[in-house]
Design a protein that fits this description.
Blueprint lengths: L8 E2 L2 E5 L3 H13 L3 E5 L2 H10 L4 E5 L2 E3 L2 E3 L3 H10 L8 E5 L10 H8 L3 E4 L4 H11 L3 E2 L2
Parallel strand pairs: 2-3, 2-4, 4-7, 7-8
Antiparallel strand pairs: 1-9, 5-6
Helix pairs in contact: 2-3
């Protein structure tokens, strides 16, 4: 886990779209402990609203959003596609996450997410150190002048 953050270090402003509230809380807590600023939401439509109101350095998005155990169209695939079509956000790094690759017919969902614009795909459960490594790669911290 990342240690104390230098006051001079500027870390990423992250938008986290995750429908599993427990996982969202855990990821958010770990990211904040590492010094990142995190805004959470549980659907693509809520993430789109956040992106229209504020600037972010990175998007972490669940690929499949479920309501009452059923996948709904308000998920990460649509969000990734929407972000890539927005002039303001089209170059923002995106990490797609999912726990569905183990299900029949879903083995290639992360490659689909990458094909439509995600920079990196990760399977759940998320290895937090690996996530930190990828965040540092996609949205590197900079020191103040």
């Amino acid at each position: 886990m990342k240690n104390a953050i230098s006051v001079e270090e500027k870390l990423a402003r992250i938008l986290l779209m995750e429908d599993d509230l427990t996982l969202s809380y855990q990821l958010s807590l770990n990211l904040k402990k590492a010094g990142h600023t995190v805004q959470t939401c549980s659907s693509a439509s809520a993430a789109q609203e956040e992106l229209m109101l504020a600037d972010f350095d990175l998007l972490i998005t669940d690929v499949i959003v479920k309501v009452s155990g059923q996948a709904v169209p308000d998920g990460g695939i649509g969000l990734i596609s929407w972000v890539r079509r927005q002039e303001k956000h089209c170059k923002m790094p995106i990490i797609a996450i999912t726990g569905t690759t183990k299900f029949p017919g879903m083995e290639h969902i992360l490659s689909t997410a990458r094909q439509i614009g995600a920079d990196i795909g990760m399977e759940k459960p998320i290895d937090i150190e690996y996530l930190f490594e990828k965040i540092d790669f996609l949205a590197p911290s900079t020191s103040k002048a």
